[in-house]
Specification:
binds adenosine monophosphate, single chain, alpha/beta, Rossmann fold, about 200 residues, about 50% helix, two-stranded antiparallel sheet
C-alpha cells in the first residue's frame, strides 16, 4: 500500500504514521526527519536545508525529490510506504507520479487553533518521538530517556510562516489529488486514537 499523509504542520501526520507503520508493516518516510537527521550529522544537504527550515520555508523541490526517489528505491519499500510531509508542492506531486503510483492520500483537515496549541506545546526527541508538554512529567523522553527539545521551527514566529507556506503552496496539492479521485479527508482535530480508527476503517 502506497500512502501519502497530507496536511498542515501540527495536523498529526507524524503521530499517525508511527501507528500506521506498525499496523501495515511498511516504512514511514518523513522528509522532515530526513532533513533533521542530515542537520544533526552536519552533512552538506543538512546545512543547505537548515537555511530554509529555520525560516519556515520549503527546501527546493529538486533536493527533496532526489532524497525521496533514492529512499523509495530501497528494498523495504517494495510492499509499500507511508510518505509524511511529501509532496508539499504540486511539482513534487508531479515528480512522484513519475516515480511510482500512489493508492491513497489522507488529507488531515485541522483548525488553526488546534495547530497552534499542538505546535507551541510540542517537545521532540532525537529518537523521533514527539510529545505534548501538557502530557509530560519531566523534560526527558518517556520512550528513550534523552532530553527533549523544542524544534527551531516550532517557535511562534516560524510557525506563522510555515502555516502561510502551507496555505499558499501545499494546500493546492490536495486539489491535485482530488482531481485524481484519490483524496480521503479526515477530521484531524479529533484525538489521535479516533483519527487512527477512521483511517484504518477506510484503508482496511
Ligand atoms: P516537517 O517535519 O514535515 O514539519 O518538516 C520540517 C521542515 O522540513 C519543513 O518546514 C520544510 O522546511 C522541510 N521539508 C520537509 N519536507 C519537505 C518537502 N516535501 N518539501 C520542502 N521542504 C520540506
Amino acid at each position: 500500500m502506497n500512502l501519502i499523509l497530507l496536511g498542515a504542520p501540527g495536523a498529526g501526520k507524524g503521530s499517525q504514521a508511527v501507528k500506521l507503520k506498525e499496523h501495515y508493516g511498511i516504512p514511514h518516510i518523513s522528509t522532515g526527519d530526513a532533513f533533521r537527521s542530515n542537520i544533526s550529522k552536519g552533512t552538506e544537504i543538512g546545512l543547505y536545508a537548515k537555511s530554509f527550515i529555520d525560516k519556515g520555508l520549503l527546501v527546493p523541490d529538486d533536493v527533496v525529490v532526489g532524497i525521496v526517489k533514492a529512499r523509495l528505491e530501497e528494498a523495504d519499500c517494495a510492499n509499500g510506504f507511508i510518505l509524511d510531509g511529501f509532496p508539499r508542492t504540486v511539482p513534487q506531486a508531479e515528480a512522484l507520479d513519475k516515480i511510482t503510483a500512489v493508492d491513497c492520500i489522507i488529507d488531515f483537515k485541522v483548525d488553526r487553533e488546534t495547530v497552534l496549541k499542538r505546535l507551541t506545546g510540542r517537545r521532540s526527541c532525537s529518537c523521533g518521538g514527539t510529545f505534548h508538554v501538557s502530557k509530560l512529567k519531566s523534560e526527558y523522553c518517556p520512550v528513550c530517556g534523552k532530553k527533549l527539545y523544542i524544534r527551531a521551527d516550532d517557535k511562534p514566529e516560524v510557525i506563522e510562516e510555515r502555516l502561510r507556506v502551507y496555505k499558499e503552496t501545499t494546500a493546492p496539492v490536495a486539489e491535485y489529488y482530488r482531481e485524481q479521485g484519490k483524496l480521503f479527508e479526515v477530521d484531524a482535530n479529533l484525538d489521535i486514537d479516533k483519527v487512527y480508527d477512521i483511517i484504518v476503517a477506510k484503508l482496511g
